[in-house]
Amino acid sequence: MKIAVDAMGGDYAPKEIVAGVELARDQFNDIEFLLFGKKDEVMQVLNDETNITVIDCSEVIDMNDEPVRAIRRKKDSSLVKAAMAVKSHDADAIFSCGNTGALLAAGLLIVGRIKGIARPGLLSTLPVLTADGTQASFNLLDSGANADNKPEQLYQYALLGRLYAQSVRGIENPRIGLLNNGTEPHKGSKLTLEAHKMIAADDTINFVGNVESRDVLTGPCDVLVADGFTGNAVLKSIEGTAKATMNVIKSEIMQAGPMAKLGALMLKPAFANIKAKMDQSQYGGAVLLGAKAPVVKAHGASDAKTVLATIKQIKEMIDHDMLQKFEQAVAVHNEQTNSND
Amino acid sequence: MKIAVDAMGGDYAPKEIVAGVELARDQFNDIEFLLFGKKDEVMQVLNDETNITVIDCSEVIDMNDEPVRAIRRKKDSSLVKAAMAVKSHDADAIFSCGNTGALLAAGLLIVGRIKGIARPGLLSTLPVLTADGTQASFNLLDSGANADNKPEQLYQYALLGRLYAQSVRGIENPRIGLLNNGTEPHKGSKLTLEAHKMIAADDTINFVGNVESRDVLTGPCDVLVADGFTGNAVLKSIEGTAKATMNVIKSEIMQAGPMAKLGALMLKPAFANIKAKMDQSQYGGAVLLGAKAPVVKAHGASDAKTVLATIKQIKEMIDHDMLQKFEQAVAVHNEQTNSND
Question: Any idea which of B131-135, B253-257, B324-328 has the lowest mean pLDDT?
Fold first, then answer.
């Protein structure tokens, strides 16, 4: 398989991106990498070109670029050229740690959508924080690719999310939940009421019903389906609240007496574990599901280890023919829908 | 002023409700209380009837009752009779710690809406958690009274929320933010894009623009306007994440060695402070803004102290003629809108 990598995206690019690619190359000898970036910068940090082809790009899309405009104007950027490689079938997937909006735009406008999927959704992986300390994760889809969704699109996210959880996470029959403002089936907005009906009507889906945002971190489902606006709001609330809570703890300790400071010192290893559990990057990158190939975004602050983990995640999608399964599932659904008309 | 109190709503009703009312009665001699509940139960916990009239009710709406049905069928319940007292102008406000949905339904169907306000919104108060340990709060509106909102309604929430912050919190020129999926003005759903335009066009509003859910706890605004579906999702995410984070800390400490356990012991006062800061009940009850009178819900687990704080909050609304100001603001806006047509 071939993976197109944007070597210039991310806070520590190209150094950590290239280092991560080399780690992955050393571990998986069936992957060829197309590394897009400023050749002189990339060559300075690349040790060994085995299974790695560097493609020179004169431009870089940065975090401040307006996504759609950047995709249209910066034709010689590492991101656009990486996406073009997927479009021309020279690569099977695209991976970037750069501008999320620009990567989504490249996914939609250059890589393209699977036939029958109007609005690809962004799938993120979040931690499950159980009281007994056991650890797991769940997927949230759409976590922000769209600002407005239709019920049919939420139903498609249930199908796509299920296939993702089966392919990449090896869950045989993933529990699918619908993010809603109450657990009872009669609760919801016009959108979620209709989506609930559509998902519930599909016997092949292991539907656990509505899930409230208050409960998502306790692990009621493996895949949480949401419209992109609310999914994004919940994702960012979780990030912000976890951060604010840790800040309050820090400030309380700073203001407390020497006993409390000593106590905090003794708890240092426990706090390091907590930080690691809350760290989303360990769970891999966000994936634009519904695009014709894996379009994968890892955190801007990714280091080589995160890059390696994300490449592993992409390899799982390709090894399990996830995209072909998507196309089949959507085609079957569309056929049924049309024959019902 | 007269306040109608549902003595039977809440986990510790009627004992803590009655105790809280007595505390408020002792503190404010200008409030008369109408206490609705099972008279024999209420009389058992009531010490002194000064300024308190007990009205016997044979029924109680509990947490499992379906809200609208309960309001329609349980005509002799403490909640319905308290709302009827507001409707007939025998009371100026209604207060309950019971079934939120039923109180909202009573507010909409019995107390009624201010003319020109199609969808009253629920205003909640949340803590601002700053890194330097200083403490404040902000209001979120609508935090869940509605599942579907229109742009015009979000604009009305900006007007109502501003008057609330001025009346109850004494903020002269409250900063109004709009909950959105990006900070730039061009970001958003169809709903938030349109609402943004309407709020920004009103020069009298101190509009700070879009606010992402990731930042709300850092205090970017005094009033955060949201549609009820997303507002509810963000409110519950914050609750759930704070709880999950504290659970992870607990479980990490339980699994850690004796040194860490000793450390945790030393940090006990700091953790108690953190819990207090995160506790929303100290900030008062949730208010249905847009109803003809204050309709106020405090947490189900409220004790006498919370009941007292919430009655104080209601007194501020009445003392500052908040409802008359609402009616004027809405009338002025509707006149302008009509003259523009």
Answer: B131-135
Cα–Cα distance, B276 to B266 (Å, whole number) = 18
**A window 189-248, beta carbon within 8 A of B:** 189-190, 192, 212-218, 228-230, 232-234, 236-242, 244-248
For A185, other C-beta atoms within 10 Å of its C-beta total 14
In contact, A154 and A191? CB cutoff 8 Å: yes
CB atoms within 10 A of CB B66: 16
What is the rounded CA–CA span in Å between residue B37 and residue B9? 9
Cβ-based neighbour number of residue A300 at 10 Å: 17
- Residue B20's closest CA among B239, B281, B274? B281
Q: How far apart are CA A316 and CA B71, in angstroms?
A: 54
Are A125 and A139 within 8 A, CB to CB? yes
pLDDT digits (tens, 9 = 90+) for B63-99: 889 999 999 999 999 999 999 999 999 999 999 999 9
In this prediction the pTM is: 0.93
Cis preceding-peptide flag for B67 (omega within 30 of 0):
no
H/E stretch holding A126: strand A121-129
Please report how the helices B228-255 and B258-266 are oriented relative to each other, as an axis angle in degrees rounded to 10.
130
Task: Strand A2-6: give its sheet, edge to edge.
Answer: A52-56, A32-37, A2-6, A93-96, A295-297, A286-289, A121-129, A135-141, A223-225, A175-179, A206-211
Question: What's at A154, amino acid-wise?
Answer: L
Query: Does residue A17 contact residue A307 with C-beta atoms inside 8 Å?
Result: yes
Q: Do B229 and A234 touch (CB under 8 A)?
A: no
CA of B102 vs chain A CAs: smallest distance (Å):
14
Instruction: Assign 3-class secondary structure to A167-203.
Output: HHHCCCCCEEEEECCCCCCCCCCHHHHHHHHHHHCCC
Place of tokens 């599942």: B147
Query: What DSSP state is assigned to residue B52?
Result: E
In one-letter notation, the amino acid at residue B57 is C
Interface predicted TM-score (ipTM): 0.92
Cα separation values, B157 from A36, B142, B184, B293, B307, Å: 49, 7, 21, 16, 26
* Nearest-CB residue to B264 (from A147, A217, A267): A267
Q: Cα–Cα distance between B142 and B320 in angstroms, integer?
A: 22
List the single residue in A with minimal CA-CA distance to B190.
A148
> H-helix or E-strand containing A138?
strand A135-141
Chain A CB contacts of B259 below 8 Å: 266
Q: Distances in Å between the alpha carbon of B181 and those of A53, A122, B262?
A: 38, 14, 43
Cβ A190 vs Cβ A148: under 8 Å: no
pLDDT at A135 over 80: no
Tell me whether A277 touches chain B (CB under 8 Å): yes
R_g of chain B, CA atoms, integer Å: 21
| Residue B30: Cβ-neighbour burial (10 angstroms; 0-12, 13-18, 19+) | exposed
